[in-house]
Amino acid sequence: MQELLKIIDDLIKKITQTDPETISSNTLEEWITLAENYKSGFQEQLLSRILTYQTENEIKRSVRFLQLRLTILSDTLFEFKTSTKHTAQPLNLSKVAKCFITILEELIVILEKSVPEYFDNDMEVTEKQKSGFINNFNNTGSRLTKQLQDIDHDLLDLILHPFHEAILEQKSGLTYRKVNYLSTLQQELSKPIATGPVENIQNIKERLIYLNFNSWRLLYYLFDKIKFENCKEENLTDKILNYYNHLKCINQSYVKPKVALYPDGNSLKEMLADVITEEIYAMEKEHQYNSYYEPVQKHSVSGGIKIPINLSVPQLACITRLFVKIGLIGNIKLIDLFDFLSNNILTKKAGNLSVKNLNNHYYETDDKSIATVKEFMIAIINEINKAK
Q1: Which end is more exposed in the chain, N or C (fewer Cβ atoms within 10 Å of the end residue's Cβ)?
Q2: What's the whole-model pTM score?
Q3: Whole-angstrom Cα Rg for the chain
Q4: Do residues 22 and 168 both lie within one domain?
Q5: Same domain for 160 and 269
């Protein structure tokens, strides 16, 4: 394999360093034929060489060394070919350089497809691939924008953002992983979509989940859309059910394996399911709270007349707890008991009672309230003693 790379390297040096005036057409044809012959035997040599290695690390080092060398050779030729556009270099020499670049790019593809598990997807692509990606997006980007014209501009900006970011990164940072992902994304989004804005949004959302477009900005965009839709529901129970329907659809979504905009992050499907689950949890807690503090039936027995008592809310809660504990008040739900008291008792300071206040003070009694209740209990005992 090293010998093959050296021969290709020597050919490239001849192309880039030889005086063009001294190169005959026959020589150029010989170079092209020679390179084609080496390309045809590359895959066979690659696989046979890999089989000789004993460890995973040896295979990985070898594959990535070849990938790097082929990338450097391709970039060298691409720079030479680009420079000939501004010089008097003959067209046939540029043609040979272009042919060699194509061969080197094909060798990289062979390497990637033959041993994908060892191929370095985080390595920067060749200059030829950068140029091809940008030209392709410039040529097809307008068609993609037109395809997505029925969706709102915020979503369109979110989708196009990584493409614009990649173009800015063409000098550095444009990796095989990113190019492959964006090419797949562009191809997927270019497929026909349903008619109508609502159907379009749903269709696009499903495709972005499928391709794991795991952008935080997109996550909150989609969640805000779901929350806005939920605002149309009139009661809390319907809102919770609506969230559960969305969660069911998301959990049943299919995600393409080993594909992600950001490979180190969680999938869009997981993140969206998590935020909806958190929202459901918060709303169910609110629903439980409301159910606890808002009983269906009001227990008013006094025809609208409330009994005034010389106790504060904490003191009433304290004495109520004592009566419940010693069994003076029989088997009744606390919510019903609090509801009865709030509808039939006027406290000393607060006036009208609320179920919520009674519940809060029922479990947390201050020392002053205990002392006051104790005084009332002593007075009751004294009255009992007098009645003997």
Answers
A1: C
A2: 0.61
A3: 38
A4: no
A5: yes
